[in-house]
Structure prediction request, 140 residues.
Amino acid sequence: MFLEVCNGCDHCGTRCLAGFGVTRPEWEAVQAFLAGQAAPELERIEAQEKELPWPGAEELDARVRYCRFRDMEKNRCSIYPVRPTICRLFGHTEWLPCPIEAVPSYPDGAAALWNAYRTEKRKPWEGWQEKENNASMSNA
Ligand code: SF4
Prediction:
């Protein structure tokens, strides 16, 4: 992968929209990462407005919801070290291409990786959290 062209670039971040699915191990990795973060930092990111006018379509009143882990103030992913597979592939595959066409070519194995990954059970972040909450309540 040509990650060196990504250094300092955040164009992919403008596509960090809510609602995509992640696997249970990915969700668990994020939970473990968050457990090690300072509470004020987590609260700062959670308090940010994530639903905003769609850039370039403000006159249509179109709105877009960004990923809950997008740090809107610092324009970065707040869980970058444990970001899920789809985020790692973004900009580095033919079907999730680099938005500014800075990545010169894509790895041959990306399609096979994605095909294997998409056979895994996936839910949005909130889906796994809800399942966890329900399990906790039934054990109480
Ligand atoms: S987890 Fe990070 S990289 Fe993935 S969509 Fe959310 S903010 Fe973007």
About this structure: The beta strands are 51-53, 63-65, 70-71, 76-77. The two ends are 47 Å apart (CA to CA).
